[in-house]
Amino acid sequence: MKYLRLTLDGRETVIKKTTIVDIAKEAGVSVSTVSRILNNKPDVAEKTRQRVLQVIEEQNFTPQTAWQQLRSGKSRVITLHFPQNFNPLFQGMIADAALRCEQLGFTLNLMVGPLDEPELLNILRSGQADGIILTETLTHDWRVESLRGYPSRFVMIGRCADTTGLSYVDSAIELGVGDAIDHLAELGHRHVGFLTLGKIAPGKEYSFTGFARAGCQAACRRHGITCHLRATDLSNESVTDAAVNLLEQHPEITAFVTPQDSGVPGILKAIALRGLRIPEDISVVGLLDEAFAEMITPPLTALDFSSHTLGFTAAELLVAQLNDEVSGPQQVLIKPELHVRGSTGPCVQR
C-alpha cells in the first residue's frame, strides 16, 4: 500500500492508495495475472479470477486507474511537497492543484514533512509518483538542484535563482511591488518603509522575498525614492516593533509597503501607536486578498493575486510535460494587480 499523510491543524490523516501491485500481492498472483483479469482475458482459472476480483472489491480498487497504469507504465500520481518551514498551508492553492490533477486523470499526493535527497529522488525512481510539484521555493533550493536531472518531471511554484531549463509558475511580485512604488511616487512620497520576511534560516531565503525586495529597490531608484528596508519574522509583534523603530529613526517616512499579508496588521498597529492617521499622515500598501482589504478601515490599497491560480497552473504544466504535450521548459509569471483604495493619499510632509 501507499500512504498519503496529510497533516492539517496538527492532526494526521492516513489515506490508502491501492495499486495493481498491491492487488497482486494480496491475491497471491502475478501482476500480469491481475492485468489479464482487468482486461477480461479468458486464459485465467475461474477460481483465480474470483479471488482477484474479491480482493479488488475489498480494497475499493478502481479498474480504470489500473488500466491507465498498465497502458502508460505510469503511477498517475503527482506528489506536491510543501515543507513546513514557516508559512501555513495555502489550502486554496493545494485544493486547486488537486482538482486540476483529478480533472486530468491524476491523483495528488501531499507531503508536508521534511525530505532528504534520497527520499526526494526515490519518489521518482521507485515509481511512487510520475512527477513532483515543489512549493515554498528558496532562492537556492537543494530540491531543485537534486531534481535537475529530471527537468520534465517537476514544476516549481515559485522560482529559484537559476531557472535555466526548468518549469515554474510564480507571482511576478517584483512587478507588483514596482506598481505600488509607482503609485506612491505619483502621490509625491519620497521616503518609503518596506517590511518583508527575513531569512528563515542562515543562508535560506524564500525567492518570493528576494524578488519583492529587488522590485522595490529598482522602482525606488527609478523615482529617486529612499527605501528604508527592514526584515522581520512577520509576527505581529516583530512587524510592529520594526515599523515603530523605522518611524522613530526616520520620521520622514510617509508610506509603508509590505509584500506579505501577514505584515499588514503589525504595520497598522505601529501607525496607531505613533498616533498617525491613514492616509492623512501616512499611506499603506500591502498584499492582501480583496475581501480582507475591503474590510480594513480605511480600505487597504493592496496587491492581489490568486494562490488558487498557482496551484491550478502548476498541475497543468506538469501533466502537459508528463504527457509529452509540450517541449522545453514552461515558465509562467502571474502579475499581481494593484487595487487603489483609501489607505493611500497625497504625501503631506510632517
State the CATH architecture of the domain at 173-305: 3-Layer(aba) Sandwich
* Shape annotation: elongated
Largest sheet: 6 strands, parallel
Helix content: 40-55%
Q: Kindly report the name of the CATH homologous superfamily of the domain at 173-305.
A: Response regulator
Unreliable residue runs: 1-16
Report the average pLDDT across residues.
Answer: 86
How is the secondary structure organized here?
Blueprint: E1 2-8, E2 11-17, H1 20-27, H2 31-38, H3 46-58, H4 63-72, E3 77-81, H5 91-103, E4 107-111, H6 117-125, E5 131-134, H7 142-147, E6 154-157, E7 168-171, H8 173-186, E8 191-197, H9 207-223, E9 226-232, H10 236-249, E10 255-257, H11 264-273, E11 283-287, H12 290-295, E12 301-304, H13 307-322, E13 331-334, E14 337-339
Parallel strand pairs: 3-4, 3-5, 5-6, 6-7, 7-13, 8-9, 8-10, 10-11, 11-12
Antiparallel strand pairs: 1-2, 12-14
What does this structure look like?
It is a single chain. Strands 4-3-5-6-7-13 form a six-stranded parallel beta sheet. A six-stranded mixed beta sheet has the order 9-8-10-11-12-14, sandwiched between helices. The N terminus is likely disordered. It is built from 13 helices and 14 strands. The protein is elongated, with a radius of gyration of 25 Å. Among the domains are: 54 residues, Orthogonal Bundle (434 Repressor (Amino-terminal Domain)); 133 residues, Response regulator (Rossmann fold). 41% of the residues are buried. Helix 5 links the parallel strand 3 and strand 4. The termini are far apart. It has 350 residues and is an alpha/beta fold.
